[in-house]
Amino acid sequence: MSEPTVDLAAEYETSGVREVLEELDRALIGLSPVKQRIRETAALLLVDKARREMGLTQETPTLHMSFTGNPGTGKTTVARMMAGLLHRLGYIRKGHLVSVTRDDLVGQYIGHTAPKTKEVLKKAMGGVLFIDEAYYLYKPDNERDYGQEAIEILLQVMENNRDDLVVIMAGYADRMDKFFAANPGFRSRIAHHIDFPDYSDAELLQIAETMLEEQSYRFAPEARAAMADYIALRRAQPHFANARSIRNALDRARLRQANRLFSEAKGPLDAAALSTIAEPDIRASRVFRGGLDQDRPVAREAAE
Amino acid sequence: MRITQGCFSFLPDLDDAQITAQVEYILGRDWAVSLEYTDDPHPRNTYWEMWGNPMFDLRDAKGVMMELDECRKAHPEAYIRVQAFDDTRGFETVMMSFIVNRPAEEPAFHMQRTDHVGRSQKYGWEAR
After folding, report:
1. Where does the signal sequence lie (chain A) (predicted)?
2. DSSP class per residue in B59-97
3. Mean of the per-residue pLDDT values of chain B
Protein backbone atom coordinates (compact mmCIF):
# COMPACT_ATOMS: atom_id res chain seq x y z
CA MET A 1 0.00 0.00 0.00
CA SER A 2 1.41 3.35 -0.97
CA GLU A 3 1.51 6.34 1.35
CA PRO A 4 -1.42 8.70 0.89
CA THR A 5 -0.30 11.87 -0.84
CA VAL A 6 -1.82 15.26 -1.40
CA ASP A 7 -1.50 17.48 -4.43
CA LEU A 8 -1.61 21.02 -3.10
CA ALA A 9 -1.61 22.57 -6.56
CA ALA A 10 -4.65 20.55 -7.58
CA GLU A 11 -6.32 21.36 -4.28
CA TYR A 12 -5.60 25.04 -4.90
CA GLU A 13 -7.34 24.83 -8.27
CA THR A 14 -10.34 22.72 -7.34
CA SER A 15 -11.24 24.41 -4.06
CA GLY A 16 -11.69 27.75 -5.86
CA VAL A 17 -9.12 29.49 -3.68
CA ARG A 18 -7.30 30.56 -6.79
CA GLU A 19 -10.38 32.43 -8.08
CA VAL A 20 -10.79 34.30 -4.81
CA LEU A 21 -7.13 35.30 -4.72
CA GLU A 22 -7.25 36.40 -8.35
CA GLU A 23 -10.35 38.45 -7.69
CA LEU A 24 -8.57 40.00 -4.73
CA ASP A 25 -5.70 41.00 -6.98
CA ARG A 26 -7.99 42.35 -9.65
CA ALA A 27 -10.58 44.13 -7.54
CA LEU A 28 -8.28 45.77 -5.04
CA ILE A 29 -5.70 48.32 -6.03
CA GLY A 30 -2.57 48.60 -3.92
CA LEU A 31 -2.77 47.02 -0.44
CA SER A 32 0.13 44.70 -1.25
CA PRO A 33 0.93 43.85 2.41
CA VAL A 34 -2.71 42.85 2.92
CA LYS A 35 -2.73 40.70 -0.19
CA GLN A 36 0.51 39.08 0.94
CA ARG A 37 -0.96 38.27 4.35
CA ILE A 38 -4.10 36.83 2.82
CA ARG A 39 -2.10 34.68 0.44
CA GLU A 40 -0.09 33.39 3.40
CA THR A 41 -3.25 32.71 5.38
CA ALA A 42 -4.78 30.89 2.42
CA ALA A 43 -1.67 28.73 2.10
CA LEU A 44 -1.77 27.93 5.80
CA LEU A 45 -5.43 26.99 5.66
CA LEU A 46 -4.93 24.88 2.55
CA VAL A 47 -2.09 22.95 4.18
CA ASP A 48 -4.09 22.62 7.37
CA LYS A 49 -7.03 21.23 5.46
CA ALA A 50 -4.78 18.66 3.77
CA ARG A 51 -3.32 17.71 7.16
CA ARG A 52 -6.76 17.21 8.58
CA GLU A 53 -7.76 15.01 5.66
CA MET A 54 -4.70 12.85 6.34
CA GLY A 55 -5.58 12.65 10.00
CA LEU A 56 -2.48 14.50 11.19
CA THR A 57 -4.49 17.00 13.17
CA GLN A 58 -8.02 17.14 14.50
CA GLU A 59 -8.80 20.54 15.85
CA THR A 60 -10.05 23.55 13.92
CA PRO A 61 -7.45 26.30 13.80
CA THR A 62 -8.38 29.64 15.33
CA LEU A 63 -9.54 31.80 12.46
CA HIS A 64 -10.72 34.94 14.21
CA MET A 65 -9.01 38.01 12.78
CA SER A 66 -8.50 41.66 13.41
CA PHE A 67 -8.27 44.18 10.59
CA THR A 68 -6.69 47.47 11.55
CA GLY A 69 -6.40 50.55 9.40
CA ASN A 70 -7.81 53.96 8.67
CA PRO A 71 -11.32 54.44 7.28
CA GLY A 72 -11.84 53.64 3.60
CA THR A 73 -8.87 51.29 3.27
CA GLY A 74 -10.98 48.35 2.15
CA LYS A 75 -11.48 46.43 5.40
CA THR A 76 -15.11 45.51 4.73
CA THR A 77 -14.38 44.54 1.13
CA VAL A 78 -11.53 42.29 2.19
CA ALA A 79 -13.68 40.78 4.95
CA ARG A 80 -16.28 39.86 2.36
CA MET A 81 -13.61 38.17 0.22
CA MET A 82 -12.23 36.45 3.30
CA ALA A 83 -15.70 35.00 3.93
CA GLY A 84 -15.70 33.62 0.38
CA LEU A 85 -12.21 32.22 0.86
CA LEU A 86 -13.03 30.49 4.14
CA HIS A 87 -16.21 29.11 2.64
CA ARG A 88 -14.38 27.60 -0.33
CA LEU A 89 -11.81 26.04 1.96
CA GLY A 90 -14.63 24.51 3.96
CA TYR A 91 -13.94 26.32 7.22
CA ILE A 92 -17.37 27.96 7.32
CA ARG A 93 -20.55 26.41 5.99
CA LYS A 94 -22.37 29.31 4.34
CA GLY A 95 -19.87 32.05 3.58
CA HIS A 96 -22.04 35.11 4.22
CA LEU A 97 -20.87 38.25 6.00
CA VAL A 98 -22.85 39.89 8.78
CA SER A 99 -21.55 43.38 9.36
CA VAL A 100 -22.39 44.98 12.72
CA THR A 101 -21.35 47.84 14.98
CA ARG A 102 -21.83 48.49 18.68
CA ASP A 103 -25.48 49.51 18.15
CA ASP A 104 -26.40 46.07 16.84
CA LEU A 105 -24.87 44.23 19.79
CA VAL A 106 -25.39 46.39 22.85
CA GLY A 107 -28.82 47.09 24.29
CA GLN A 108 -30.19 50.17 25.97
CA TYR A 109 -31.30 48.77 29.30
CA ILE A 110 -30.55 45.90 31.65
CA GLY A 111 -31.36 42.53 30.11
CA HIS A 112 -31.52 43.92 26.58
CA THR A 113 -27.95 43.21 25.55
CA ALA A 114 -27.79 39.42 25.78
CA PRO A 115 -30.80 38.72 23.51
CA LYS A 116 -29.61 41.36 21.05
CA THR A 117 -26.10 39.96 20.84
CA LYS A 118 -27.43 36.41 20.56
CA GLU A 119 -29.77 37.45 17.77
CA VAL A 120 -26.82 38.78 15.77
CA LEU A 121 -24.74 35.69 16.53
CA LYS A 122 -27.54 33.41 15.35
CA LYS A 123 -27.69 35.29 12.05
CA ALA A 124 -23.91 35.07 11.66
CA MET A 125 -23.71 31.31 12.31
CA GLY A 126 -22.12 29.52 9.38
CA GLY A 127 -20.54 32.74 8.16
CA VAL A 128 -18.37 35.66 9.18
CA LEU A 129 -19.31 38.22 11.82
CA PHE A 130 -17.66 41.53 10.99
CA ILE A 131 -17.57 43.95 13.93
CA ASP A 132 -16.69 47.41 12.71
CA GLU A 133 -15.06 49.77 15.21
CA ALA A 134 -15.01 46.99 17.76
CA TYR A 135 -13.36 49.16 20.44
CA TYR A 136 -16.64 51.00 21.04
CA LEU A 137 -17.86 47.82 22.73
CA TYR A 138 -15.58 48.60 25.63
CA LYS A 139 -16.00 51.86 27.50
CA PRO A 140 -13.53 51.93 30.37
CA ASP A 141 -14.90 55.16 31.86
CA ASN A 142 -18.29 53.58 32.55
CA GLU A 143 -18.11 50.37 34.51
CA ARG A 144 -21.85 49.81 34.17
CA ASP A 145 -21.71 49.99 30.40
CA TYR A 146 -23.61 47.12 28.78
CA GLY A 147 -20.81 46.64 26.23
CA GLN A 148 -19.03 44.41 28.73
CA GLU A 149 -21.92 41.96 28.60
CA ALA A 150 -21.71 41.76 24.80
CA ILE A 151 -17.95 41.21 25.07
CA GLU A 152 -18.44 38.29 27.45
CA ILE A 153 -20.97 36.59 25.17
CA LEU A 154 -18.72 37.18 22.15
CA LEU A 155 -15.70 35.68 23.89
CA GLN A 156 -17.69 32.64 24.88
CA VAL A 157 -18.98 32.06 21.35
CA MET A 158 -15.56 32.71 19.81
CA GLU A 159 -14.21 29.91 21.98
CA ASN A 160 -17.06 27.38 21.86
CA ASN A 161 -18.37 27.83 18.33
CA ARG A 162 -15.09 27.96 16.42
CA ASP A 163 -16.52 25.54 13.87
CA ASP A 164 -19.58 27.67 13.30
CA LEU A 165 -18.43 31.22 12.81
CA VAL A 166 -15.42 33.42 12.31
CA VAL A 167 -15.26 36.83 13.96
CA ILE A 168 -13.40 39.68 12.28
CA MET A 169 -12.91 42.86 14.30
CA ALA A 170 -11.98 46.05 12.54
CA GLY A 171 -11.01 49.58 13.44
CA TYR A 172 -8.25 52.17 13.77
CA ALA A 173 -4.94 50.56 14.68
CA ASP A 174 -4.15 52.56 17.83
CA ARG A 175 -7.61 52.21 19.35
CA MET A 176 -7.74 48.50 18.57
CA ASP A 177 -4.42 48.09 20.39
CA LYS A 178 -5.88 49.77 23.46
CA PHE A 179 -9.01 47.63 23.16
CA PHE A 180 -6.98 44.42 23.04
CA ALA A 181 -4.80 45.56 25.92
CA ALA A 182 -7.91 46.09 28.05
CA ASN A 183 -9.49 42.80 26.94
CA PRO A 184 -6.71 40.21 26.87
CA GLY A 185 -9.30 37.52 26.14
CA PHE A 186 -9.67 38.85 22.62
CA ARG A 187 -5.96 39.05 21.91
CA SER A 188 -5.44 35.41 22.76
CA ARG A 189 -8.41 34.29 20.66
CA ILE A 190 -7.46 36.23 17.56
CA ALA A 191 -4.84 34.52 15.45
CA HIS A 192 -4.49 36.80 12.48
CA HIS A 193 -3.81 40.51 12.70
CA ILE A 194 -3.84 42.25 9.35
CA ASP A 195 -2.85 45.88 9.03
CA PHE A 196 -4.29 47.97 6.20
CA PRO A 197 -1.97 50.76 5.04
CA ASP A 198 -3.25 54.07 3.67
CA TYR A 199 -3.41 54.35 -0.11
CA SER A 200 -0.79 56.43 -1.91
CA ASP A 201 -1.92 59.35 -4.09
CA ALA A 202 -1.22 57.38 -7.27
CA GLU A 203 -3.28 54.44 -6.02
CA LEU A 204 -6.18 56.70 -5.11
CA LEU A 205 -6.13 58.20 -8.61
CA GLN A 206 -6.22 54.70 -10.04
CA ILE A 207 -9.11 53.84 -7.71
CA ALA A 208 -10.96 56.94 -8.90
CA GLU A 209 -10.56 55.88 -12.51
CA THR A 210 -11.75 52.34 -11.75
CA MET A 211 -14.80 53.67 -9.92
CA LEU A 212 -15.70 55.90 -12.86
CA GLU A 213 -15.15 53.07 -15.30
CA GLU A 214 -17.59 50.90 -13.36
CA GLN A 215 -20.23 53.57 -13.85
CA SER A 216 -19.25 54.10 -17.52
CA TYR A 217 -17.77 57.54 -16.95
CA ARG A 218 -14.27 58.73 -17.73
CA PHE A 219 -11.97 61.65 -16.97
CA ALA A 220 -11.04 64.25 -19.54
CA PRO A 221 -7.20 64.50 -19.55
CA GLU A 222 -7.22 67.85 -17.67
CA ALA A 223 -9.76 66.43 -15.22
CA ARG A 224 -7.39 63.63 -14.34
CA ALA A 225 -4.72 66.18 -13.46
CA ALA A 226 -7.30 68.09 -11.41
CA MET A 227 -8.21 64.89 -9.58
CA ALA A 228 -4.56 64.29 -8.73
CA ASP A 229 -4.37 67.80 -7.24
CA TYR A 230 -7.64 67.16 -5.43
CA ILE A 231 -6.32 63.98 -3.82
CA ALA A 232 -3.16 65.69 -2.59
CA LEU A 233 -5.17 68.55 -1.07
CA ARG A 234 -7.92 66.38 0.35
CA ARG A 235 -5.46 64.18 2.21
CA ALA A 236 -4.27 67.13 4.27
CA GLN A 237 -7.80 68.09 5.30
CA PRO A 238 -9.77 66.62 8.19
CA HIS A 239 -12.00 63.52 7.91
CA PHE A 240 -10.01 62.06 5.03
CA ALA A 241 -11.28 58.51 4.49
CA ASN A 242 -9.14 57.16 1.63
CA ALA A 243 -11.26 55.41 -1.02
CA ARG A 244 -14.52 56.53 0.59
CA SER A 245 -13.54 60.20 0.20
CA ILE A 246 -12.78 59.52 -3.44
CA ARG A 247 -16.16 57.89 -3.95
CA ASN A 248 -17.91 60.89 -2.41
CA ALA A 249 -15.84 63.32 -4.47
CA LEU A 250 -16.79 61.48 -7.65
CA ASP A 251 -20.47 61.48 -6.70
CA ARG A 252 -20.33 65.26 -6.33
CA ALA A 253 -18.37 65.61 -9.57
CA ARG A 254 -21.08 63.67 -11.40
CA LEU A 255 -23.66 66.01 -9.89
CA ARG A 256 -21.75 69.04 -11.15
CA GLN A 257 -21.27 67.45 -14.55
CA ALA A 258 -25.01 66.87 -14.84
CA ASN A 259 -25.70 70.46 -13.85
CA ARG A 260 -23.13 71.77 -16.30
CA LEU A 261 -24.55 69.74 -19.17
CA PHE A 262 -28.03 70.89 -18.31
CA SER A 263 -27.22 74.57 -18.22
CA GLU A 264 -24.67 74.71 -21.06
CA ALA A 265 -25.91 72.24 -23.62
CA LYS A 266 -27.39 73.91 -26.66
CA GLY A 267 -28.01 70.97 -28.94
CA PRO A 268 -28.19 67.20 -28.71
CA LEU A 269 -25.44 65.51 -26.62
CA ASP A 270 -23.56 62.40 -27.62
CA ALA A 271 -22.56 59.52 -25.36
CA ALA A 272 -19.04 60.87 -24.98
CA ALA A 273 -20.31 64.19 -23.62
CA LEU A 274 -22.64 62.42 -21.22
CA SER A 275 -19.89 60.25 -19.80
CA THR A 276 -16.96 62.66 -19.57
CA ILE A 277 -16.04 64.36 -16.32
CA ALA A 278 -14.37 67.65 -17.28
CA GLU A 279 -11.87 69.75 -15.36
CA PRO A 280 -14.36 72.33 -13.98
CA ASP A 281 -16.44 69.51 -12.45
CA ILE A 282 -13.50 68.69 -10.21
CA ARG A 283 -12.05 72.18 -9.75
CA ALA A 284 -15.38 73.50 -8.40
CA SER A 285 -14.90 71.43 -5.25
CA ARG A 286 -14.58 73.24 -1.94
CA VAL A 287 -11.44 71.24 -1.29
CA PHE A 288 -9.59 73.69 -3.58
CA ARG A 289 -10.77 76.58 -1.39
CA GLY A 290 -9.60 75.10 1.90
CA GLY A 291 -12.34 72.60 2.73
CA LEU A 292 -15.66 72.95 4.50
CA ASP A 293 -16.31 76.20 6.39
CA GLN A 294 -16.85 74.34 9.65
CA ASP A 295 -13.50 72.59 9.38
CA ARG A 296 -11.51 75.70 8.60
CA PRO A 297 -9.45 77.20 11.42
CA VAL A 298 -11.44 79.75 13.42
CA ALA A 299 -8.81 82.45 12.86
CA ARG A 300 -11.25 84.66 10.94
CA GLU A 301 -13.72 84.75 13.80
CA ALA A 302 -10.97 85.58 16.24
CA ALA A 303 -9.89 88.52 14.10
CA GLU A 304 -13.32 90.09 14.14
CA MET B 1 -48.33 6.77 25.24
CA ARG B 2 -46.26 8.10 22.40
CA ILE B 3 -47.73 11.33 21.05
CA THR B 4 -47.92 11.37 17.27
CA GLN B 5 -48.31 14.91 15.99
CA GLY B 6 -46.77 16.64 12.99
CA CYS B 7 -44.15 15.24 10.63
CA PHE B 8 -41.92 12.25 11.45
CA SER B 9 -43.84 11.38 14.62
CA PHE B 10 -44.23 7.72 13.65
CA LEU B 11 -40.46 7.46 13.18
CA PRO B 12 -37.95 7.04 15.97
CA ASP B 13 -36.99 10.39 17.54
CA LEU B 14 -34.72 12.50 15.33
CA ASP B 15 -31.21 13.04 16.64
CA ASP B 16 -29.55 16.45 16.52
CA ALA B 17 -27.83 15.81 13.18
CA GLN B 18 -31.17 14.87 11.63
CA ILE B 19 -32.89 17.91 13.13
CA THR B 20 -30.07 20.07 11.74
CA ALA B 21 -30.63 18.55 8.30
CA GLN B 22 -34.37 19.27 8.49
CA VAL B 23 -33.74 22.87 9.55
CA GLU B 24 -31.27 23.25 6.68
CA TYR B 25 -34.06 22.12 4.35
CA ILE B 26 -36.41 24.71 5.90
CA LEU B 27 -33.86 27.52 5.57
CA GLY B 28 -33.06 26.39 2.03
CA ARG B 29 -36.64 27.13 1.04
CA ASP B 30 -36.52 30.59 2.66
CA TRP B 31 -39.01 29.68 5.35
CA ALA B 32 -38.99 31.19 8.83
CA VAL B 33 -38.38 28.87 11.78
CA SER B 34 -39.78 28.98 15.27
CA LEU B 35 -39.65 26.86 18.40
CA GLU B 36 -42.66 26.15 20.61
CA TYR B 37 -43.09 24.10 23.77
CA THR B 38 -45.93 22.83 25.92
CA ASP B 39 -46.72 20.39 28.69
CA ASP B 40 -50.21 19.74 27.32
CA PRO B 41 -49.97 17.62 24.15
CA HIS B 42 -53.76 17.37 23.69
CA PRO B 43 -54.46 17.48 19.93
CA ARG B 44 -56.90 20.36 20.45
CA ASN B 45 -54.13 22.44 22.04
CA THR B 46 -52.88 24.06 18.82
CA TYR B 47 -51.23 27.10 20.36
CA TRP B 48 -48.13 26.09 22.23
CA GLU B 49 -45.93 28.55 24.15
CA MET B 50 -43.47 30.39 21.91
CA TRP B 51 -39.80 30.02 22.72
CA GLY B 52 -38.56 33.48 21.72
CA ASN B 53 -39.55 35.13 18.46
CA PRO B 54 -39.74 33.30 15.17
CA MET B 55 -36.40 33.47 13.37
CA PHE B 56 -36.76 35.11 9.99
CA ASP B 57 -33.28 35.79 8.70
CA LEU B 58 -31.07 32.89 9.62
CA ARG B 59 -28.62 31.41 7.12
CA ASP B 60 -27.47 28.37 9.05
CA ALA B 61 -29.25 25.76 11.17
CA LYS B 62 -26.81 26.29 14.02
CA GLY B 63 -28.79 29.35 15.17
CA VAL B 64 -31.91 27.21 15.62
CA MET B 65 -29.95 24.45 17.33
CA MET B 66 -28.56 26.96 19.84
CA GLU B 67 -32.10 28.06 20.70
CA LEU B 68 -33.22 24.44 20.90
CA ASP B 69 -30.45 23.65 23.37
CA GLU B 70 -31.50 26.60 25.52
CA CYS B 71 -35.14 25.56 25.36
CA ARG B 72 -34.27 21.98 26.30
CA LYS B 73 -32.24 23.26 29.22
CA ALA B 74 -35.15 25.36 30.45
CA HIS B 75 -37.90 22.79 29.76
CA PRO B 76 -36.39 19.31 29.70
CA GLU B 77 -39.74 17.69 30.49
CA ALA B 78 -41.80 19.56 27.88
CA TYR B 79 -42.80 18.79 24.34
CA ILE B 80 -40.82 21.03 21.98
CA ARG B 81 -41.58 21.39 18.30
CA VAL B 82 -39.92 23.11 15.37
CA GLN B 83 -42.21 24.93 12.97
CA ALA B 84 -41.54 26.34 9.53
CA PHE B 85 -43.51 29.22 8.02
CA ASP B 86 -43.89 30.22 4.40
CA ASP B 87 -44.89 33.81 3.61
CA THR B 88 -45.48 33.60 -0.16
CA ARG B 89 -49.24 34.06 0.31
CA GLY B 90 -48.74 37.28 2.21
CA PHE B 91 -49.26 35.66 5.58
CA GLU B 92 -47.24 33.08 7.44
CA THR B 93 -48.44 29.56 6.65
CA VAL B 94 -47.20 26.58 8.64
CA MET B 95 -45.35 24.33 6.21
CA MET B 96 -43.73 21.90 8.60
CA SER B 97 -44.08 21.04 12.24
CA PHE B 98 -42.26 18.30 14.07
CA ILE B 99 -41.59 17.32 17.66
CA VAL B 100 -37.94 17.47 18.73
CA ASN B 101 -38.21 16.88 22.47
CA ARG B 102 -40.48 14.66 24.59
CA PRO B 103 -40.75 14.12 28.34
CA ALA B 104 -39.23 10.88 29.63
CA GLU B 105 -42.67 9.74 30.74
CA GLU B 106 -45.34 10.63 28.20
CA PRO B 107 -48.91 11.11 29.42
CA ALA B 108 -51.66 8.70 28.44
CA PHE B 109 -55.01 9.83 27.07
CA HIS B 110 -57.98 8.95 29.13
CA MET B 111 -61.45 8.83 27.57
CA GLN B 112 -64.30 10.32 29.58
CA ARG B 113 -67.90 9.25 28.82
CA THR B 114 -70.70 11.52 29.95
CA ASP B 115 -74.41 10.80 29.83
CA HIS B 116 -76.41 13.38 27.94
CA VAL B 117 -80.01 14.20 27.09
CA GLY B 118 -81.92 11.16 25.99
CA ARG B 119 -79.65 8.15 26.01
CA SER B 120 -76.89 9.90 24.05
CA GLN B 121 -73.32 9.96 25.23
CA LYS B 122 -70.59 12.61 25.00
CA TYR B 123 -66.93 11.72 24.77
CA GLY B 124 -63.92 13.72 25.84
CA TRP B 125 -60.22 12.96 26.12
CA GLU B 126 -57.81 14.20 28.67
CA ALA B 127 -54.03 13.79 28.90
CA ARG B 128 -53.01 12.24 32.22
Report:
1. none
2. SSTHHHHHHHHHHHHH-TTSEEEEEEEE-TTSS-EEEEE
3. 93
Dump pLDDT digits (tens) for A250-300: 999 999 999 998 888 778 888 888 888 988 888 888 888 877 666 655 544
CATH number of the domain that A244 lies in? 1.10.8.60
Question: CA angle, A97 as apex, A96 and A99 as ends, to 5°?
Answer: 155
Would you say residue A236 lies in a domain?
yes
The distance of A154 to chain B (nearest Cα, Å) reads 14
Write out chain B residues lying below 8 Å of A94, CB-based. 59-60
Say if A80 falls within a structural domain: yes
Contacts of B61 in chain A (CB under 8 A): 125-126
Question: Which one is predicted more confidently, A10 or A205?
Answer: A205
- Which residues constitute the domain of residue A266? 201-303
CB A254 within 8 A of CB A247: no
**ipTM score assigned to the predicted complex:** 0.81
Q: Is residue A21 part of a domain?
A: no
Facing A94 at nearest CB: one of B52, B55, B59: B59
Shared domain for A215 and A292, answered yes or no, is yes
- Point out the domain boundary residue: A196, A217, A234: A196
Number of structural domains in chain A: 2
B63–A125: do the CB atoms touch at under 8 Å?
yes
Are A96 and B59 inside 8 Å of each other by CB? yes
Running along chain B, 128 residues long, what does each successive block of 10 average in pLDDT? 90 94 95 94 91 91 94 95 94 94 91 92 88
Number of domains in chain B: 1
Whether residues B66 and A123 touch (CB distance < 8 A) is answered with no
A23 part of a folded domain: no
Bridge pairing between strands A218-219 and A276-277 = parallel
Q: Are A94 and B60 a contacting pair at CB < 8 A?
A: yes
Question: If you count residue pairs, one on A and one on B, with CB atoms under 8 Å apart, how many are there?
Answer: 35
Measured CA angle at A69 (ends A67, A71), to 5 deg: 115
Q: What distance in Å separates the CA atoms of residue A6 and residue A53, rounded to the nearest whole number?
A: 9
Q: What is the pLDDT of residues A142-157, one digit of tens each?
A: 878 889 899 999 999 9
